Amino acid sequence: MRRHYPIEMILRDAFTVLRTRSLPNLVQEQIERMILDGTLSPGEPLREAALANTLGVSRGPVREAFRGLEEKGLIRVEKNCGVQVRTLSHIEADQIYEVRITLEALIGRKVTENMTRQGINELTAILDDMAIAAEDSNVHPYTSLNLAYHDTLARLTGNPQLHETYRRLVSQLSLFRRRAYLHDMQSMALSLREHRAIFQAIADADGARASELLRDHAEDSRRRLHDALLPSDVPD
Amino acid sequence: MRRHYPIEMILRDAFTVLRTRSLPNLVQEQIERMILDGTLSPGEPLREAALANTLGVSRGPVREAFRGLEEKGLIRVEKNCGVQVRTLSHIEADQIYEVRITLEALIGRKVTENMTRQGINELTAILDDMAIAAEDSNVHPYTSLNLAYHDTLARLTGNPQLHETYRRLVSQLSLFRRRAYLHDMQSMALSLREHRAIFQAIADADGARASELLRDHAEDSRRRLHDALLPSDVPD
DNA sequence: TCGCCGAATATTGTCAACAATATGCAATAT
DNA sequence: ATATTGCATATTGTTGACAATATTCGGCGA
Q: Which of B170, B220, B99 is CA-nearest to residue A102?
């Protein structure tokens, strides 16, 4: 993907990395990635020394990273007993959805108010990729693009606080062991249609409709959470 | 305020403290308190060594506390340049208000659905204290009670995620140097009436009205933020 | 055989020393 | 006189060692 960049830009990047990225920061991001992509499963214990060895750093930075992740709600720290990847009960997941649904409605309104040409292009690109993934029934890429689409919407509201609040909730939701909701081509096609409808409402500057569609979309997700859970009442 | 408690309860408390509170935790809470009550002002630099000395601990726990506070959005950490209490621009404060207003509406609806006898009592007690503070024109106690009232509403929704999300935003808002909004007896009296109206709607199980009143109440705050800011355009 | 106690081990909590980087100040050169 | 360079100091970044606590496992007694 990366094309040739002028040397100054590369240097500026390297400079920025050295300037802002400290060991605790990198460690935190790395652990967060491993949690969100499932390398580390909810409930799994995290040992300071082991992680420090794996990442080639001392325990200090790892401990600092833990504090950040705890505040982010991604891990659970119990004094003298170690830390685990946080497990999310279906009740907690449902409670998060309740907040998320409200935020989606706000996002729909604000992103429409704030939409730019650049934003339209970004969303179009994501939708195109989603179409390809849906066509090929590639579940994992589709799921990633789905997350990217909604995250992009939150960002394009132009309200970083809203974006951050939204991200926080979504990242915690990923702790809930997700039975593959979108597993067949039909559900992906349906999902794609919904995302296109949302895009259309935004492009038409119809904030009320975008808001409504996004809220409904999130409510569907919440309903799928219930449906996937209630029948199979055996956890694990 | 504290009354006599049975010895078992005290012991259990002490046990709980030792069990769950680690040094980094206590340090973080202490610094957070100092930030929220204004002992540490926005923009003020925080020196690891100095804080460690003051609190009688080593720099390690202080650094860990910093990570947590950074994730909470209360401080700003710049590599090799130290950490400051975060400053909130009026733009950021406004953006936070936008999210908060939406959450207040949700809180109004949920707290009404979820209200209990115990909750009614808690709110009544706070309102009574507010009335006394307003009567005496005691600004500081009134402000605290105001915060407590809204925080209690968020808690009584029975949705900890909603409560936590709300708290996060409110605590960041306290970073915005607050020109004393409620300075005279009239505005306190008005505020008290609004809080009583919200309570009444909840007690009447009128969720829609509680939601509307809370949203309006937050929108008023946001408007006061603008009004207090635009005339005096000179920052500091 | 089952349950309890205690030592050994592993893991986390805390600290102080060392390294790297930034800041402030003084001296020098233009 | 001003700007720049180099040094001294202060502050943060990282590490490894030591202390405290939990967990595990083997032995002992009922």
A: B99
Q: What are phi and psi of B85, to 5 degrees?
A: -65, 130
Extents of the domains making up chain B: 7-85, 90-229
Task: Please tell me what DSSP assigns to residue B87.
Answer: P
Establish whether the CB of B43 is closer than 7 Å to any nucleic acid atom in strand D. Answer: no
Residues of B in contact with A73 (CB under 8 A): 164
Cβ contact, residue pair A159, B67, below 8 Å = no
Which positions of strand D lie within 7 Å of protein CB atoms? Answer: 11-17, 21-23
- Please list every residue in chain A whose beta carbon sits closer than 8 Å to the beta carbon of residue B22: 79
A95 touches chain B (CB under 8 A): yes
Neighbours of A105 (CB within 10 A): 22
pLDDT at B236: 37
- Written out in words, the top-level CATH class of the domain with range A7-85 is mainly alpha
Query: How do residues B98-156 score in pLDDT, each as one tens digit?
Result: 999 999 999 999 999 999 999 999 999 999 999 999 999 888 899 999 999 999 999 99
Pick among B64, B70, B171 to test the A interface (most A CBs inside 10 A): B64
- List Cα–Cα distances, A177 to A146, A172, A222, in angstroms: 17, 11, 14
3-state secondary structure (DSSP) of residue A213: helix
| Three-class SS state of A75 | strand
pLDDT band at B233 (very low <50, low <70, confident <90, very high): very low
**Which CATH fold topology does A90-229 show?**
Four Helix Bundle (Hemerythrin (Met), subunit A) (1.20.120)
B48 in contact with A, Cβ within 8 Å: no
Nearest CB neighbour to A68, from listed B67, B103, B168 = B67
In this predicted model, which residue has the larger pLDDT, B12 or B116? B116
Specify whether the backbone of A158 is left (phi greater than 0), alpha (psi in -120 to 50) or beta. Answer: left
Over residues B209-229, the mean pLDDT reads 91
The candidate with the shortest Cα–Cα distance to A102, out of A224, A211, A207, is: A211
